C-alpha cells in the first residue's frame, strides 16, 4: 500500500470521526474505523490500521477506574477465550476470500445497529447457559480475528452481567486492549502487516485523540441518546453497504 496523500487524508479523517464517536459514547472507534476503511482500502488493511489507535485510546480506559483486579478475577474465562481464538479467526482471514468476510462484517454491523435501535435485548440472549463466558469469549475472539470487530457478542455479554457503569466501561477497555493486541500479534504472524500499514496506524493516533477531544466537548452539548441513534443509523447504512458490495463483487 503506497502512502499517497489521498490515503493519508482518508485515514486521518476516518480516525477523527471514529475518535469523535468514542468521545461522545465511550466506545465505537474500531467499529466506525472498520466500517469506513473496509469499504475503501479493504478489510485486512482496515484491521491493521485500527491496531495502534485502538490500543492507545483504550489503555487508559482499561487501567483507570479501580476495578481492574475485580474485572480480571470475574472475567478471566471470557477474556482468555477471546484472546486465544483471535489466532483462529486470523487464520481464516488469511485463507478465505476476504470479500465474504467483508460481508460478514457488514452483517455484524447491521445486526448490532438494529439491536441498538430497536432494543432487541441482546444482553439477555448472550448471557444464557452455564458456559456463557467461554462461549461468548470464543465467538468474540473468532469474529475479531476474521473481521476486526470485538463488539459482538463481547460488548453485549459484558452488558448482560449488570456491572456498575464505571466497571462496565473499564471492562470494555480491557476487552478491546486484549483482543486488539492479540489481533496485532496474530496478523504479524500471518504476514498481514507491513511497514507502511504500521506507520499509518501509528500516525492515526493523533487524529483519533483529536476526535476524542472533540467528542467529549460535543457530549456536553448534545443528548447522548440522540447521538447514539444517529451513530447506529450510520452504522446500519455502512453495514448494509458492505454486505451489498460483497454480494455484488
TrEMBL record:
Q: Does the keyword Transmembrane apply?
A: yes
Its placement in the membrane is given as: Multi-pass membrane protein
Xref: InterPro entries = TM_pro_TauE-like, TSUP
Cite the Pfam families for this sequence.
TauE
The alphabetized UniProt keywords are:
Cell membrane, Membrane, Transmembrane, Transmembrane helix, Transport
Where do the TM regions start and end? 33-53, 74-94, 100-126, 138-161, 167-185, 192-214, 226-244
Cellular compartment(s)? Cell membrane
Does Transport count among this protein's keywords? Answer: yes
Q: What is the similarity comment for this entry?
A: Belongs to the 4-toluene sulfonate uptake permease (TSUP) (TC 2.A.102) family.
| Full protein name | Probable membrane transporter protein
Amino acid at each position: 500500500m503506497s502512502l499517497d496523500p489521498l490515503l493519508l487524508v482518508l485515514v486521518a479523517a476516518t480516525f477523527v470521526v471514529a475518535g469523535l464517536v468514542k468521545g461522545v459514547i465511550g466506545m465505537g472507534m474500531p467499529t466506525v474505523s472498520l466500517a469506513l476503511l473496509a469499504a475503501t482500502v479493504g478489510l485486512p488493511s482496515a484491521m491493521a490500521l485500527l491496531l495502534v489507535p485502538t490500543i492507545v485510546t483504550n489503555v487508559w480506559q482499561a487501567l483507570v477506574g479501580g476495578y481492574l483486579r475485580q474485572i480480571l478475577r470475574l472475567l478471566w474465562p471470557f477474556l482468555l477465550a477471546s484472546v486465544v481464538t483471535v489466532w483462529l479467526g486470523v487464520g481464516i482471514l488469511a485463507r478465505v476470500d476476504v470479500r465474504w468476510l467483508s460481508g460478514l462484517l457488514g452483517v455484524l454491523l447491521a445486526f448490532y445497529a438494529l439491536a441498538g435501535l430497536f432494543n432487541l435485548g441482546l444482553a439477555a440472549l448472550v448471557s444464557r447457559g452455564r458456559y456463557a463466558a467461554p462461549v461468548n469469549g470464543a465467538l468474540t475472539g473468532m469474529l475479531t480475528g476474521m473481521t476486526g470487530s470485538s463488539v459482538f457478542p463481547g460488548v453485549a455479554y459484558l452488558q448482560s452481567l449488570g456491572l456498575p457503569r464505571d466497571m462496565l466501561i473499564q471492562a470494555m477497555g480491557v476487552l478491546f486492549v486484549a483482543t486488539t493486541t492479540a489481533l496485532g500479534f496474530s496478523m504479524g504472524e500471518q504476514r498481514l502487516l507491513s511497514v507502511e500499514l504500521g506507520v499509518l496506524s501509528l500516525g492515526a493516533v493523533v487524529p483519533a485523540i483529536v476526535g476524542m477531544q472533540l467528542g467529549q466537548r460535543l457530549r456536553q452539548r448534545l443528548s447522548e441518546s440522540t447521538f447514539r441513534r444517529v451513530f447506529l443509523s450510520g452504522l446500519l447504512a455502512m453495514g448494509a453497504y458492505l454486505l451489498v458490495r460483497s454480494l455484488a463483487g
